[in-house]
Amino acid sequence: MLSIARQTLRARWASFIGVFVALGLGACLLATTGLTIASTVAGSRPPVWYVHSPVVVTGHQTVSVTVDEGDGERYTETLRTRRPGQLPPDTAARLAALPGATVVVDHAVPVDLIGADGAAVRAHPWSSAGLHPYTFVGGDPPRGDDEVVLTAPTGHRQGDRVEAWTPLGRRTWTVAGVVTGPPAVYLTDGAAARLAGGRVDAIAVSGVTAGQVRAVTGPDAAVLTGDRRAGAEPDPDGELLVVAAALLGTTAGVALFVSVFVVAGTFAFAVAQRRRELALLRAAGATPRQVRRLVLGESLIVGVVAGAAGCAAGTVVAPPFAAWLAGSGFAPAGFTARFILWPLLAAFGVSLLVALTGAAVAARRAGRVRPIEALREASVDRRVMTAGRWVFGLLFLGGAGALVALVPGLGPEAIGLIMLEAQLAITGVALLAPVLAPRLAWLVGRLLLPGVAGALARDNARTAVRRTASTVAPILVTAGIAASTFATTATLWDAEERAAATRVAAPTLALPVSSAGIADPGTGVPTAQSVVYVRHDGAPEQFDALYAGTGLERVLRLPVRSGSVADLAGTDTVVVGGVLARAEGWRTGGEARLWLDDATPVRLRVVAVLAPSIDLDQTVLLPWALRAAHAPLTGADAVYLTGAPVDGARTVTAADYFRERNAEQRRLNHLALVAVLGMALVYTAIAIANTLVMAIGGRGRDLAVLRLGGGTPRQVLAMIGVEALLVGATGVLLAGVITAGMLAGLRAGLAPMVADPRTVVPWTPILVVAGVCVAITFVASVVPAALALRTPAARLSAIRE
Questions:
Q1: N or C: which end of the chain has fewer CB within 10 A?
Q2: 8 A C-beta contact, residue 764 and residue 481
Q3: Cα(466)–Cα(457) distance, rounded to whole angstroms?
Q4: Helix, strand, or coil (residue 12)
Q5: How far is CA 722 from the centre of its chain?
């Protein structure tokens, strides 16, 4: 059958152009994203700060959960934390006692220089300068606590005065010297230790082996050598790479989702148009299995060629795509994609699997056609809906409804579920499209399109079930994903911001002017964002945390279900959100076990449980004193003011604070959605154009009948254009119905958590996507029809189907 498949591909190559382009584009996208994702994790970052130290000791930076499944089977899930844990206080002294050991205790404290050199850097002890290459540009090392050494380039010289915001407030130093090397501000060892509050970030050891160091530290510390030493250094690019990987994964998932629709729809439409050809094969003795193998053989050949071409294109596209990610803020500056073989093999395999999966249903249907039945019904669309389409269509719609009820309880963090929810609803409606789309198109045409052209257009849309459904499906996918994700995301963000802002009882808030935070909150209530890690379903999972000072109940109207927020004090208490408390079984007066963001395990007494709320459901509130014991000495992220303004801060309203806090995340989310939907639009154009071009080839006789019946080319084109607009509007209308249903369910779910929840619809991007879909449908219908009408009507009527 492969030889016959090659012959049919040569004879009907135009019918498979859309499949080839869709598969090739999908393979290219998968290869591009695969190469980029692999480049975010492949290889290791060499150390920059600890170059001259063969061994670096730091706190552990992972949390692990071991699950015993019985019968001796156990597995361990490990998660990297944001910061390393604290080292035992006597670690440096014990290491220094090793014969021949040289020990350097390093502190890293965020400071912001004020003035021409204004920048966020880290202050280190001068002894740590020898851990990496440096040279003096001028001056001397710092000798007093009021002296510093700056890193070039800088506008300051020896003897200049420089001011900086630090965790201890505003400081003025004298520049003792300027050196080359990694960006830093060097203080005397004593001044750096006091600025760090005594916290040790790392200990550099030389003159002894790693084994000797491990023998001293035991399991209380992580001993790093080689490129692993970079793990003790701040990695500002780490979170960006995680964001990049998440965006790429979402883009690839949407591309895969849409490409299956395109390939499946194209093959189904192609098989429907080839009924007579398949009937002749059956009449000539071909078995149903052989017919199925023919269709699958065609998809196999197209999949292999398109996959190879797409992977080759991916190697070219990946580097500039990585550069775009870096320029847009999704990846670190200078990030690029490298050639790695396994992502290309994976992209090729997935592309081939998509081709075979998309053709499987069409092949099964082709094999079930009987010769006489196919010849008799070749021009009529009958029994388009099968039992499988009914069952799975309803199941997908039911799954989407279940997620609508679940998403509000998860808050804005559930954006990934929103995409899944949209895909389930769209898949369900797409499976039911042969029933819904023709009838809806006829109804819309009846209401909006009077006249002969309108009557012909709506009757064509209703009777040509396969053509209408195949055209509506890609429009539904793209417009539905665009409308549902933009609208539900915007609604969730608005609900969270409004809920958080209306809860604030303080008249104003103070925000820091530097990365060092607000050192002295005065009479206000300091807060700082953080995370904690909780054992959840047999694995460590990250949740939001908020450190808060005493008096939080006076500045925030928290929805307390049980207990009292006023009891949040000391270092052993916690207030937990309602959903998190229910999931973990935490009760007021009980114990909550978790890890702080420096991997320190703690057992805290639950003093209050909050009622359901959109922004605090999966958050824990921790006492300020606990942060002082386990976090670097940095100031507050925000202070709820109850009196006079504080030094080193600017004053804002509650609404401005929450809007600013989410502004960058909103920007990244918007760019991510634009990138994902842009790719979906490309697929939509391919699917619509391919379906309609194939359809025009089979409508030659219809066009000839209209011409021979007295219709002018202009009138025929008008009918084709009106039908295209009608079908395009039907797809957009179905997408709108899905989105309206999702938003109605989302608003009902938000009602217990937000007073008077609002539905926010970003109309501009949604209308742009819908307009582009309808325009593509119009152009892809009218242009091929205009070319076909250049053939005289008599010759056009004699063209074989």
A1: C
A2: no
A3: 15
A4: coil
A5: 39
Strands 102-106 and 539-548: unpaired
Do residues 609 and 586 make contact, with C-beta atoms less than 8 angstroms apart? yes
Mean pLDDT in residue range 179-194: 92
Distance between CA atoms of residues 682 and 125, nearest Å = 55
DSSP tag of 536: E
DSSP 419-439: HHHHHHHHHHHHHTHHHHHHH
Tens-place pLDDT, residues 585-594: 999 999 999 9
Q: Residue 518, CB half-sphere, CA atoms under 13 Å: how many?
A: 26
Instruction: Give the helix/strand (H/E) hosting 288.
Output: helix 288-328
Dist. CA 161–CA 184, nearest whole Å: 17
Residue 137 structure tokens: 């540009």
Show the tokens assigned to 502: 């209306």
Phi, psi angles (nearest 5°) of residue 215: -65, -30
Range of 43-52, 128-137, 477-486 with top mean pLDDT: 128-137
Which tens digit of pLDDT belongs to each residue from 341-368? 888 998 898 888 877 877 777 777 776 6
Can you say whether residue 276 is alpha, beta or left, with left for phi > 0 and alpha for psi between -120 and 50 degrees? alpha
Q: On the CB side of 758, how many CA atoms lie within 13 Å of its CA?
A: 11
Classify strands 509-512 and 649-652 as parallel, antiparallel or unpaired: antiparallel
For residue 528, what is the enclosing H or E element?
A: strand 525-536
At 173, the pLDDT band (50, 70, 90 cuts) reads very high
Question: How far is residue 345's CA from residue 361's CA, in Å, rounded to a whole number?
Answer: 26
- Asked whether the predicted pLDDT for residue 687 surpasses 70, the reply is no
Q: What is the 3-state secondary structure (H, E, C) of 106-120?
A: ECCEEEEEECCCCCE
CA atoms within 13 A on the CB side of 744: 7
Confidence category of residue 379, pLDDT binned at 50, 70, 90: very low
Neighbours of 63 (CB within 10 A): 25
Q: Which amino acid would we find at residue 435? A: V
Looking at the DSSP bridge assignments, the partners of residue 186 are 124, 149
Q: Which of 105, 83, 84, 85 is nearest to 94 (CA)?
A: 105
Cβ atoms 622, 530 nearer than 8 A: yes
The secondary structure of 653-714 as a DSSP string is: -HHHHHHHHHHHHHHHHHHHHHHHHHHHHHHHHHHHHHHHHHHHHHTHHHHHHHHHTT--HH
* Block residue for tokens 């050192």: 519
Q: Which residue has the tokens 């709108």?
A: 736
The residue type found at 168 is L
DSSP state of 556: B
R_g (Cα) of the chain, nearest Å? 33
Residue 85 has pLDDT above 60, yes or no: yes
Q: Which two structure tokens, joined as six digits, stand for 481? A: 């994903």
Candidates 796, 610, 784, 771; CA nearest to 14 is: 784
Residue 575's H or E segment, with its range, is strand 573-576
In this structure, what token pair is assigned to residue 590? 């009980």
